[in-house]
Amino acid sequence: MAKTLYSRLGEINGITKLVDEVVDLHMGNPTVSPRFVPYRDQPERLKLIKHHTVHFFCAGSGGPQQYAGRDMVTTHKGMNISEQEYLAVVDDIMEAMDNNNHGDDEKKDVLAILYSLKEGVIRL
Ligand code: HEM
């Protein structure tokens, strides 16, 4: 049987590393840093959001974890996230995947998942 995306991303350890690095990239990306820098003063909240995000991507890529966070619309409602911010987040994820030597197939699979979630994130 073909390997799951979860397994190709290095299971929970690989996905945790990606999420940590993506958040660091967001903190330094001027298009989205104002959304994320305030969490530097709320380390416990940031830890919980990262924990939820790791489980979200684990569950969504074929891992056994259960996602206990909020659904995408509830999470992003009221933020009025722009298309440009959405793209900046996608760029950061692709950059982190490059930095971790993930291949084009994995990047395409992740892109497809991110694209399918777009309407639950932007302009809400
Ligand atoms: C397809 C793209 C995206 C996905 C899959 C996604 C996923 C998530 C997940 C799983 C959480 C955690 C929810 C929880 O803890 O209950 C979260 C939180 C958050 N997301 Fe996104 N997100 C996306 C795009 C974005 C974009 C483009 C921005 C803004 C530039 C953004 C800003 C945030 C913020 C600020 C939080 C923390 C919310 C809070 O403190 O309540 N997200 N996101």
From TrEMBL:
PROSITE patterns in the record, alphabetically? Answer: GLOBIN_FAM_2
Q: Which organism is it from?
A: Arenibacter algicola
Q: Which SUPFAM superfamilies match?
A: Globin-like (SSF46458)
Gene3D superfamilies, per database record: Globins
Kindly indicate whether the keyword Cell inner membrane belongs to this entry.
Answer: no
Task: Could you list this entry's UniProt keywords, alphabetically sorted.
Answer: Heme, Iron, Metal-binding, Transport
Pfam families registered for this protein in UniProt: Bac_globin
One annotated GO biological process: oxygen transport
Stated name of the protein: Bacterial-like globin
